[in-house]
Design brief:
CATH architecture of the largest domain: 3-Layer(aba) Sandwich
Strand order of the largest sheet: 5-4-3-2-1-10-11
Number of strands: 11
Structural class: alpha/beta
Shape: globular
Oligomer: single chain
Largest sheet: 7 strands, mixed
Number of domains: 2
Number of helices: 9
CATH class of the largest domain: Alpha Beta
Order of helices and strands: EHEHEHEEHEEHHEEHEHEH
Distance between the termini: 11 Å
Helix content: 25-40%
Radius of gyration: 17 Å
Length: 247
């Protein structure tokens, strides 16, 4: 019997940077009523608020929900309000080196980008994220730019030579996430273990990027039973199956 169900956010619970739909919100409420739930994502806290929290039912049992933004480098729990337990932020020097390396990577990769919506490089405190088409790119444009991850895998390879002292993972549909070494979703899984007192073997992780190099893969490497999904619709079916098993 599993005691904790852990989800990725973008591409798993909701489309990239989009709100939960009503069916998913209802499914999560039902799941939280029978088991503890956590969400780990490359997105920052405001993204969690906009995509997830503002769309959950008002009576959802939030005390059973743990939120880990920026690939687990931050941890929030609900105690009458949402409180951060920790944040593994970069130093100013680390941020400067990462941003410079991203700018160099853009030149070296030489991928054609016809239009950019918003900033490409976002400082999330404990994570620097590069979004190839910009932070505000429309979903349809993002879907067709790198559907097989080939462009971002090439970017990842360049970055791993420029900043080998940091972790580089593919996130979302057009983004690359950079964190401190050893701080990724595996780190988040271990923090969930230590904070909630739940063994990793008692967890299930559900994500859409569980392939090597994907930003969900470290959760699998940490030892959590992992389920690969194609999209939020498939996630709904997995949640229905889990609820049926638990009840």
């Amino acid at each position: 019997m599993k005691k904790l169900i852990v989800f990725d956010l973008d591409g798993t619970l909701a489309e990239s940077k989009s709100a939960l739909d009503a069916e998913m919100a209802s499914h999560l409420q039902n799941l939280m009523s029978v088991v503890k739930v956590a969400v780990i994502s490359g997105g920052n806290w405001p993204q969690f608020e906009q995509q997830l929290l503002l769309n959950l039912p008002a009576d959802a049992p939030l005390q059973n929900l743990s939120l880990l933004p920026t690939c687990g480098t931050k941890f929030y729990q609900y105690r009458s309000e949402w409180k951060p337990l920790y944040s593994e932020d970069f130093t100013s020097a680390e941020k400067e080196k990462i941003v410079h390396s991203l700018e160099k990577m853009i030149v070296l990769s030489n991928f054609k980008i016809e239009q950019i919506w918003g900033e490409q490089i976002e400082d999330r405190g404990s994570q620097i994220t590069f979004s190839a088409l910009g932070q505000k790119a429309p979903l349809e444009a993002k879907r067709i730019w790198d559907p097989d991850f080939a462009k971002r895998k090439a970017m990842q390879a360049v970055l791993e030579t420029l900043i080998p002292e940091f972790s580089v993972h593919l996130g979302g549909t057009t983004s690359v996430d950079i964190t401190k070494p050893g701080i990724d979703k595996a780190y988040g899984i271990r923090k969930l273990r230590d904070t909630l007192g739940i063994a990793i073997k008692e967890m299930i992780f559900i994500g859409d990027a569980l392939f090597p190099g994907g930003n969900d893969y470290p959760a699998k490497e940490a030892g959590a039973l992992s389920i690969q999904v194609r999209d939020p619709n498939e996630t709904k079916r997995v949640i229905e199956a889990i609820i049926a098993c638990l009840t």
